[in-house]
Each structure stands twice: as structure tokens, then as C-alpha cells.
Amino acid sequence: MNSIAEHIADFLKEYAPFDHLTFQELSEIALNIRVLNLEKNKSLFQINDPLHDCFYMVASGLINLYAIADAEENILNKCHEGAIFGLRPFFAKNNYMMTAKAREESIVYAIPIAVFRPFVANNEAVLDFLLENFATNTHHTKGNENLGKNLISDTVFYSDQKTEMQLFQALSYNSSPIIVTANAIVKDVAQLMAETLINSAIVCENNMPIGIVTHTDMSSKIATGRYPNTVSIDTIMSSPIIAVIENVSLAEAQLLMLKNNVTHLCVTLDGTNKSVIKGVISEHDLVIAQANNPGVLIKEIKRSKTSKELKQIRIRLADLIQNSIFKNIPLTHINNIASEINFAIIKRAVELSILDLGSPPARFAWLSIGSQGRKEQLLLTDQDSILIFEDVPAEKYREVKDYFLKLGKKTTQTLEKVGYELCQNGHMGSNMHWCKSLTDWVKQYDAWMNTPGENSNELSSIFFDYELVVGEQKIEDAISSVVFRNAKNNALFFDFLGNDALRKHSPLSFFKKFIVEEEGPFKDMFDIKTRALMPLVDGARLFALSNDLIGINNTYVRFKQLAISDPKHAEIYLNCAEAFLTLTKFRTLEGLKNDNSGQYINLDELSKIDKEKLKNALAPMKELEELIKNKFQLTQFS
Questions:
Q1: CB atoms < 10 A from the CB of 259, how many?
Q2: I need a surface site. Which of 104, 132, 358, 409 has the fewest CB within 10 A?
Q3: Phi/psi of residue 552, each to 5°?
Q4: Is the pTM of this model over 0.70?
């Protein structure tokens, strides 16, 4: 190794993530590094420039990173000696989203990504370092415990707040899939799949995918005798396919499979089904790419036979959530994954109950309400649900309701064993008040919304946060139709909801001090659920209903959508959205640390910085409160 490369290797080993590599590995990297001398005010790359084939490290001098906001160039961060930046080529294929400019005469190392990538794939510590820093936009330089942080990502989060995590480890896939035409015979395709040991075949027309056939299709449609093996392949194919672009992230692939209930994604030239096929990504590819794949947990849930098995999976989910938070993976992504797994557990609990009781005598819908319905349940809190069954003849009503009450009771008992506590207020499908026919539920919502004062004792706002877990989508749609029909110009209902939203206890005193519990087992602790999160949840719900945001239940997403629907107050809504994520993270960390619901925060255990962060997250609540007072006529229930 020449003296220059040796000098570079000595320099690299002092800084993360290079300090995780051997000197031999550093030497190999150093031999391929290009040394760049930048004069003052010289740009290394600018916004919208094509991506380079390398990322950069400051050897000496100072590099400033700029982005455009409100038509002005704003400095995002300053990269001193040891800082790495320009990592965008690891994560995306589109152009740079910021400018890197020398603030003074500087020396920069250009590190080829092709050379460095194998060390990322083979070294978990390096991978974790880069993953965390891409997610948070920060990294520690030499002396982690006492030096500042430097921005390394070329993604401008504050400009559009895109927070979907980009897992950049290589997602290998089959680039030589079986491709057949629509008139191919099933028997021949099955033979080809068996010979090549490939469990899928892409059906193409002009080299563009129009469908896919998997091993599951062969088993469920051919082996069962539903179709003879002499039919054409288009008879049993699944169509349309779910298409992705080649550089799709692991996180995106996971979500697409979970949301579309598929086990394969087709890789095409431009990520649509209107372009040339390049390959296929299977569930197995995701399992290889990430051992703790949520898809694996979903599959295990579907195979579970007992509450004990489901409980073990829920424990693993808690570990997955904790590890993801500690790696600074965006909370929105964690929420999406956790919700899909929570729903799968609830669905399996219902299915196990049906296996025990026999087939339902009528069509039904099991709806999760409250935090589960909003897809915000990261911790093991209580279970909230309602059960709706289709209308049946009067003479069968009692028999049908008895069945569903038994179904509700068995399911809630199973979920209790898994770890979801029973709702103290009885808001569960096992309660005869919340297990009834569609017509009875329509009457219930009509009464709640048109005469709220007369029903205030039983009206809980969580009944307006619901999500179908298992059953008939048409039943949930019918409830939504009733809710939004009744909400139209219903000043009395919004008067009730608005006052209910403002009735929560204030989080801060007049002198901006945290208001803590004065007595009881949580004395001197801060109730982050009641005083901080619930006012945001209630406010988001109130405005979502008044703005006809049908089918949007998540508090964060509600605020983001409200910013679009009501641009005049967009800043308030966006501030509330970010505050909700911050507060949720505080509560989740508290719950994971103490193995509880995280409702009460011990302020003495927070650092001064965290206390300020918590206090800042409470600031938008005052603006939201004023907006509620200005938007709604809060008179009768004040």
C-alpha cells in the first residue's frame, strides 16, 4: 500500500463507521478513494444534479449543506473534519436534493459506493450506523459522547416530511423469472416450475406483466380439482400484478405485500405494469434480507393454533418495535407495521373462536375502535371493539345475537391471554350493548349524533375511530355512511364533540411548568396520554368528521390531510402532526422501559433536552384549542 493510502486508512479508522472495519478492509477502501481539493465557495454537487457514484468524507476544512425553502437557499448543516455526507446514492436513484459547498478551502475524500457497499452488507455495525443516520439525518463524529452531530443525508425531510424509512441493504430478487404467455397450459407451467424450483411464473403480453401464478395458485386451484390442468394459465392467474421499481426499499416491499395480501412483487423497468418485466421479489427474498421480517410474523400468526403462540408473536413484535425505535426508524413506518401485525393477531383470535363455535349464522364485521382503530397501538394497551352482524328475521335475532356474543367473549378472552387487557369501560364485542345488528347500530349512531346530550353517558368519541379487522367491508361502509350523513351541518353534535375535546386537563401551568399527578400511585408523574395525546387525538377526529375525511382514522394522517383540505390553517395542523409523533415516541419509550402502557412519564428521569423537547411538543395544543373555539359554536355543552 502506498504512503498516501496508508495515511488515508489511518485517518478513516478514527471515525465511525470506519472504526468498525479492520485495517486491511480500510486499506482496500483507501486505495480506491479520490482526494478532492475544493476552493472556498466551490460546490461539490448542487440540487437536481445527477447522483455521483460515491459518497464523501471531510478530511479538512468545512462543507456546508444547503437546501431551498421558500425560494431561498438555507443552510442545513455544517460538516467538519470526519463528517460523511452525500449518501443519497445509497438510497435513491433520483437527483440530489441539496447543495454541498465548501465554506473554506477543504480536502474531501470521495469514497466509491461500489467499493464500500460489500463492507456494509457484511458488517452489521456499519449497517446499523448508516441506517440510523439516514433515518435521523445525524451522526456522531470522533468522540461520540461529547462532539456535535452532522447531517449526512441528502433527503430534505423538512421540505415535504417524507418519513418512510429507506432500508438500503441489498434486496436480491430473481432476475430470471419464469415468463409465459396467457395461452400457456397450466400443466406445462407447473412442470417448468417444478424443474427450475421457482415458485412463481409471470404471465406476460409483449414482455409486460399482466398476471402472476404462484405455487399457492397451483395448490388451491389445480390440486383441489377446481380447474383441470389442461386450462390456459390466464384462467388461474392473479391479476393485476403489484409492480415495483428495481431499487424499491425493503420497507416499501414489506408494506406493499402486507397491504395487498400478496407474496410476490413484479420488478419492472419503471415500476408499473405497463413496462418491461425485470424480475420478481418473493416473500423469501424479504426473509433473507431481514431476519426480523414482519411478513414472517404475519405468516406465523396465520398458522397459530393457540393464544400462547399468539402471545409469543406479540412479544416478538414488542422487540421489533423497540429495536426499530432505538435505530431511529420513523415512527410512521413502525406504526404501519405494528398495526398490520396487531390486526393479524386480532383476526386470528376471531378465526380461532369461529373454529371452536362453528360457522357464523350471518355475515358480520369485527371493528377495532379507539387506538387500535386509529392504528396507533404500539404498546400493549386495552382492547376496544364492536361487533356488527347483518339484519336477520326477527325470529332468528336472539339465536344469531347469542352466537356473536359467544364469539365476542371467546375472542376477547383469547386476546386477554395474548396480553391485550379487557377494556375497563366494557367497550368490546363481548358486551351485549356493543354486539348487535346493523340496523340497531345505525339507530345507535343516529341517537348519539342527533341527540348527543341525551346519550352523553354512553357516548364515547372512540366509537368514531374504527377499522375493519375481519368480516364484511360493506358493513363498515354502511356505518361510515351513517356517520358522515349525520355529521352534515350538525352543529349540535360538533358542539358536543368540541367541548369534549376541550375538557381535557391542561398539560402546563400558567408558568409553563408540567402539571403532574398530585396523589395516588403516579404522584409527581406526568400523564402524557390524558394531558397531551388525547387532546390531539380528539382535535384531529373533530376536524376530520367536519371535513368529511372518510376512511382516515390515524391522528397523524388526519392532521396531514387536514393541512391539504384547509390550507389556511395548514401550519397548525402540520405542527400538531409532528407533535403527535414526538409525544407518541415519548410514551412508547416509557412503556417499553417499564413494560406498561407508558401513560405516566417520570420527569425526573428525563434529560434537560428531553424535557424541553416534550414541552415544545405541547405548544401546538394551544393553537389547536383556539382553532376549535373559532370553528365551532361551543355553547350548549360548555
A1: 11
A2: 358
A3: -110, 110
A4: no
